[in-house]
Specification:
Bound molecules: adenosine-5'-diphosphate
Structural class: alpha+beta
Largest sheet: 7 strands, mixed
Strand content: 15-25%
Helix content: 40-55%
Number of helices: 10
Distance between the termini: 98 Å
Length: about 400
């Protein structure tokens, strides 16, 4: 089989054009002696045959000594990427120029090859753009993080200020409220003179209002202590008697509201880790809610039992009251939240009691949860950790 040793110039030109390649040959004086450029990679304008190479390729001006070194074989071919040209179809293209030395007959010559690298150029441009966008995004992210840190610091400062303000205000309110309350007591006892029926009724309203305000200030103070992590319990190993007594103390509340209170205590309950004052507060909060959110004639049931594995004492307060709508339930126990059903029956309150109750239960190491159905009633459950007389927790094995 015969091998081709010579390629027709027209065929070579067509092949090169097809692959978007052009070439120029220049002599040692850098005069163009031949060229093939069917697509205009050298530049659509001008017939450069016989012209000076540096006129055709102004980008090479200043690189004469490098070109001389390439021609003399002293250095590697010279490569310049992304020359900008307008081709024969008036399209903007990127061109790669490679200038290498070669022989034409017995003379040294400079072979300049032009390749269309537009796709590569566009990809490179896009990459650069993306990199810039990424840098911008990183910078704006860093700015946002800084802003967020500043906002956080400010928020912490404002929260601290709020806590200080609330606790100062609550403290300041407590003294005059206590004075109002005790003077109202003196008046009611007739120690400052006999009062008639209407005056006594008015005094009753004043005392109730002062008591409620005192309760609100106590709750506000607890809330600021809980938020600051400054509320500490005095845990003791106690029997369920402390909880039973707290329930019994509230019995008059239900009698006044014409509600029926039933208390069921499982026999042989284990001891538990309890802060008596705070546990009483938990019981009082749950019972006063049960009373407040249950109509007259309703039923309240309190049960005390141990969980099956013996590790916890479970106190449940159930009522036959207004209940809590499903959509409100996830927020119950969060700060200042009041359910729609509470507003519907115009029950007084501020939404702090359960937040404090839940926090107190958790500080005891116990759990807090509830079930409720609107119009049927609610059941609030809290647990206390069961312990032996030495204060060691009772594990799952009892
Ligand atoms: P307050 O009673 O002062 O509004 P709480 O924190 O004690 O605040 O209770 C938060 C909310 O939970 C109440 O406003 C009420 O909507 C709902 N809630 C609490 N206990 C009951 C209950 N036993 N029955 C129905 N809703 C209740």
């Amino acid at each position: 089989m015969r091998r081709a040793t010579h390629v027709e110039p027209a065929v070579a030109a067509a092949l090169l054009a097809n692959r978007r390649v052009a070439w120029v040959v220049a002599d040692q004086a850098l005069q163009i002696t031949s060229l093939v450029d069917a697509t205009g990679l050298l530049g659509a304008t001008g017939d450069w045959l016989g012209a000076a190479l540096l006129d055709a390729l102004p980008e090479l001006v200043g690189s004469e000594s490098e070109l001389a070194a390439v021609l003399a074989g002293r250095s590697d071919p010279l490569c310049i990427d992304f020359l900008e040209r307008t081709d024969c179809d008036a399209l903007a293209v990127y061109v790669r120029l490679t200038a290498a030395a070669g022989d034409v007959g017995s003379a040294r010559a400079l072979f300049c090859v032009f390749e269309d690298v537009t796709d590569l150029g566009i990809s490179r441009q896009r990459l650069t753009q993306s990199r810039n966008q990424l840098l911008l995004a990183q910078r704006s992210l860093a700015d946002t993080v800084l802003d967020l840190q500043a906002s956080n610091t400010e928020l912490r400062r404002l929260t601290d200020m709020k806590s200080v303000f609330v606790s100062v205000a609550a403290h300041e309110l407590r003294t005059p409220l206590a004075v109002i309350s005790s003077y109202a007591d003196l008046l009611a006892q007739g120690l400052v003179g006999e009062l008639n029926e209407r005056q006594l009724q008015g005094l009753g309203i004043i005392r109730d209002g002062a008591e409620r305000l005192l309760q609100v200030t106590a709750n506000l103070l607890d809330m600021t202590r809980i938020e600051a992590g400054r509320l500490e319990l005095v845990l003791q190993v106690l029997d369920a008697g402390a909880l039973v007594a707290a329930v019994e103390e509230q019995r008059p509340l239900f009698e006044q509201a014409d509600q029926h209170l039933a208390l069921a205590v499982e026999p042989a309950l284990p001891l538990a880790l309890i802060d008596e004052v705070r546990a009483t507060q938990i019981v009082v909060n749950l019972l006063s809610n049960a009373c407040k959110y249950t109509p007259g004639g309703g039923a309240i049931a309190v049960t005390l039992r141990q969980l099956a594995d013996g590790s916890e004492l479970l106190l449940t307060v159930s009522d036959s009251g207004v209940g809590i709508a499903l959509e409100d339930q996830p927020q119950i126990g969060s700060w200042l939240f009041r359910a729609q059903s509470a507003n519907e029956i115009s029950a007084k309150g501020v939404g702090l009691g359960l937040y404090i109750t839940r926090s107190l239960v958790e500080l005891h190491g116990g759990r807090f949860w509830f079930d409720s159905a609107p119009g049927v009633g609610s059941a609030f459950h809290v647990t206390f950790l069961a312990a032996d007389a030495e204060g060691d927790l009772r594990g799952n094995d009892g």
